[in-house]
Amino acid sequence: MSKQSQQKTTKDQNGVSVIQTQAHTSGLQQVPQLVPVSPGGGGKAMAPSKSKKAADKESDEYRQRRERNNLAVKKSRMRSKQKAQDTQARVNELKEENERLESKIKLLSKELSVLKDLFLEHAHNLADNVQPQSNDGSTTEQNNNSSNTGQ
């Protein structure tokens, strides 16, 4: 720190070291720092001794907890397996529906093609049968014939 600031270290009720710094331009600032409470510290609990574990494994409470845990695991695995089966069944249904829809698309495309062909054939026939008319109301074919004969 600079010469213009002062430091003071205290501990709160949880064993956390708090550094208080006072600079010449501001009031006290608190900066928490974690410091282990016990000198051998790290905050981890000590593992129980092996003799205590052996005694715990024979207790009714331990057996009940293991039985409940085993049932919970079994139930969880069954739910997971059922969910996978349900998902696979849904995948199969969607594949079948997709195949049906694709065959329907092919059928409708063929139908559209046939209808287009019919429409174009009909439109072509109409164009061949309709003769354009001149301004005087007679067909152009009649006008061509009369001009060729000299009338």
Automatic annotation (TrEMBL):
Domain BZIP: 59-122
Signal sequence, renumbered to the chain: none
Subcellular location: Nucleus
Database matches in Pfam families: bZIP_2
Main location: nucleus
Ranges annotated as biased composition (Basic and acidic residues): 53-69
Compositional bias of kind Low complexity: 138-151
SUPFAM superfamilies attached to this UniProt entry: Leucine zipper domain
Transport recorded as keyword: no
PROSITE patterns assigned to the protein according to its UniProt record, in alphabetical order: BZIP
Positions in coiled-coil regions: none
Gene3D superfamilies reported in the protein's UniProt record: 1.20.5.170
Database matches in InterPro entries: bZIP (IPR004827), bZIP_sf (IPR046347), C/EBP (IPR031106)
CDD domains: bZIP_CEBPG
Domain of life: Eukaryota
Sequence segments annotated as region (Disordered): 1-99, 126-151
Keyword presence, Ligase: no
Keyword line: DNA-binding, Nucleus, Transcription, Transcription regulation
Comp. bias (Polar residues): 12-32, 128-137
Entry-linked PANTHER family: CCAAT/ENHANCER BINDING PROTEIN, CCAAT_ENHANCER-BINDING PROTEIN GAMMA
Similarity section: Belongs to the bZIP family. C/EBP subfamily.
Protein name: CEBPG protein
Native source organism of the sequence: Polyodon spathula
Protein encoded by which gene: Cebpg_1
